[in-house]
Design goal:
mainly beta; Complement Module, domain 1; Immunoglobulin-like; 5 domains; four-stranded mixed beta sheet; 30 strands; cell adhesion; SRPX-like; angiogenesis
Length: 451
C-alpha cells in the first residue's frame, strides 16, 4: 500500500485561559508539506496526537494500542484554567490526516474599566483567580464591593463599584466680635472677610450666608451669623459666629422736680444729650444740658427747677403780665374787702389747693378793697397802685362784688366766676380746656405729688 508523500504536522499551542475547557472552531495551525519515510512493517496512519496543557483521549477500532490508525477518534480537553481552541474531537482519516486541530490557551477575563475618582490593583492581572482590589481617591468612599475576582468561566465576580463623595467640605468662620456703637447711635457697622471653603473632591464651592451682610449696621445685642456650603454630592458643612453690638449707657437721668428732660437718641446711650426744661413758673438752675459719656457717666451736675422770681414792684400792668407770658396762667381774685364771705370761703379753698394750682401752672393775684385802701398782692408781695388799676381797667374787674378771672398763658380771658369755686370744679375746667397733651401727661405723672 502506497503512502502519500504528504504528512500533516499537528502543532499545539499554549495560551492563557480561565480554568474551564471551552471549544473553539478556529484553526490557527499551518500545515507543512513534506514527504516522510513510512514504516510499512508497523504502519501509522496519522501522526500521534499531543496537546500541551491538555489531555488527548483516543479510541481506535483496532484496539487501544492503535492510537493513530485509520478510524481512531481522539477527544481533546484542556487543563483547568485553559480554554480549548479548535476541534474537541478529531479522527484519523484515510488521507492520513486528522480531521482537525486544537490547542489550549490559558483563560483570562476582560480588562476591567476604570472607575471615576478611583483605581484598582490586581494580584495577577486579568488571569483566572486574580483578585482586583478597588480604592478611591481621598474624600471618596467605595459604594459596592471592594474587590472582584476573575472566575474560571472567564467572567468577573460581582459588579463594578462606584466611588461616592462622602467627605463634607471644610469651612471656618471668622471669630466672634464685639463692636461699641458710635456716639449717639444704637447701631454699629461691622465688617469681616467671608470664609473660604475647601473640599477634597470639588475645587469650587458656593458659600451661602445665612444672616446679615457684612458692612451693614447691626442693632444692639447679639446677632448670629451662619455660613453653609454644599459640594456637588450635597455633602454639607456649616459654621457660625456672633456679632455683638454694645450700646454703652449711663444711668437713667431723672428729671428735676417741676421740670422735664428732652433727650436725643435713646435718652441714656453714649453720646445722647438731655436738655433740661422747667415747667411754667419755674426757672432752671444749673447747666442747660448734660451728655452721656463713654465712661457711662453724665457730664455736668444735676439741675434744679426753682420757682420763678416774680417782680412785683413793676410800674405797669404790661411789665407784670410779661413775666407770665407762655409760662403761667393767672387767676385774679377780686373782693370789696377782706371780710367778704365769698372771698373768705374762696381763700380757704385756694390755700388748700395750692399744690394743684402749682401743677397746673396757675398763679393767684388778689385785688382787695377800694381806694384809698385798695391792695393787690401775689402771695406776700404787694403790687403798686398803677398795676392794680391797670389790671382792673384792662380786664374790667369790679371792686364792688366778688369775682374771679382765669387767664391762659397768653393772657387771654378764658373764664369768669362770680361765686366761690371748689378746687375740683376749677381744676376740671383747667384740665379740660386749657392743658395741652404734654401738660396732661406730666400732670398724670405727678398727680400723686400733692397727696
Amino acid at each position: 500500500m502506497l503512502l502519500s508523500r504528504f504528512v500533516a504536522v499537528f502543532i499545539l499551542y499554549f495560551t492563557a485561559g480561565s480554568g474551564t475547557t471551552v471549544h473553539d472552531s478556529s484553526n490557527d495551525f499551518v500545515e507543512e508539506d513534506y514527504a516522510p519515510q513510512l514504516d510499512y512493517k508497523d504502519p501509522h496512519w496519522c501522526h500521534s496526537p499531543g496537546l500541551t496543557n491538555g489531555e488527548v483521549t483516543c479510541h481506535s477500532p483496532q484496539g487501544g494500542a492503535h492510537r493513530s490508525t485509520l478510524g481512531t477518534r481522539c477527544e481533546m480537553s484542556c487543563d483547568q484554567g485553559y480554554r480549548l481552541l479548535g476541534k474537541s474531537s478529531i479522527q484519523c482519516l484515510a488521507s492520513r490526516r486528522w480531521s482537525g486541530t486544537a490547542y489550549c490557551r490559558r483563560m483570562r477575563c476582560h480588562v476591567l474599566p476604570l472607575i471615576p475618582h478611583g483605581r484598582y490593583t490586581c494580584t495577577n492581572g486579568f488571569m483566572v483567580d486574580s483578585r482586583c482590589d478597588f480604592t478611591c481617591d481621598p474624600g471618596y468612599r467605595i459604594e459596592g464591593q471592594h474587590s472582584r475576582t476573575c472566575e474560571r468561566k472567564g467572567s468577573w465576580s460581582g459588579a463594578q463599584p462606584d466611588c461616592e463623595d462622602t467627605d463634607p467640605p471644610k469651612i471656618k468662620c471668622p471669630p466672634s466680635r464685639l463692636k461699641v456703637a458710635e456716639p449717639g447711635k444704637l447701631t454699629a457697622m461691622v465688617t469681616w472677610d467671608p470664609p473660604a471653603a475647601t473640599d477634597t473632591a470639588d475645587k469650587s464651592l458656593d458659600v451661602i450666608l445665612v444672616g446679615q451682610e457684612p458692612g451693614t449696621d447691626f442693632k444692639e445685642g447679639a446677632s448670629i451669623i451662619r455660613y453653609k456650603v454644599y459640594d456637588q454630592a450635597r455633602n454639607r458643612a456649616a459654621c457660625k459666629f456672633i456679632v455683638r453690638v454694645e450700646v454703652r449707657r449711663c444711668p437713667d437721668l431723672p428729671p428735676p422736680l417741676h421740670g422735664f428732660l428732652t433727650c436725643s437718641s435713646d435718652g441714656n446711650n453714649y453720646g445722647a444729650t438731655c436738655e433740661y426744661q422747667c415747667e411754667g413758673g419755674y426757672e432752671r438752675r444749673g447747666v442747660s444740658s448734660r451728655v452721656c459719656q463713654f465712661n457711662r457717666n453724665w457730664g455736668g451736675d444735676p439741675v434744679e427747677c426753682v420757682p420763678m422770681e416774680i417782680k412785683s414792684d413793676v410800674k405797669t400792668v404790661s411789665a407784670l403780665l410779661d413775666q407770665f407770658y407762655e409760662k403761667r396762667r393767672l387767676l385774679i381774685m377780686s373782693a370789696p374787702n377782706i371780710s367778704d364771705p365769698d372771698y373768705q370761703l374762696q381763700n380757704i379753698m385756694i390755700q388748700k389747693s395750692d399744690c394743684g394750682l402749682d401743677l397746673r401752672h396757675v398763679t393767684v393775684i388778689e385785688l382787695l378793697g377800694s381806694s384809698p385802701r385798695e391792695t393787690g398782692r401775689i402771695k406776700e408781695s404787694l403790687l403798686s397802685f398803677e398795676v392794680i388799676e391797670g389790671l382792673r381797667q384792662a380786664f374790667r374787674i369790679s371792686r364792688y362784688y366778688f369775682s374771679m378771672l382765669l387767664l391762659d398763658k397768653l393772657g387771654m380771658d378764658r373764664e369768669r366766676f362770680i361765686t366761690p369755686m371748689a378746687s375740683d370744679e376749677l381744676f376740671s375746667y383747667i384740665d379740660s380746656f386749657l392743658l395741652d397733651e404734654e401738660e396732661r401727661e406730666r400732670l398724670e405723672l405727678h398727680r400723686d405729688f400733692c397727696d
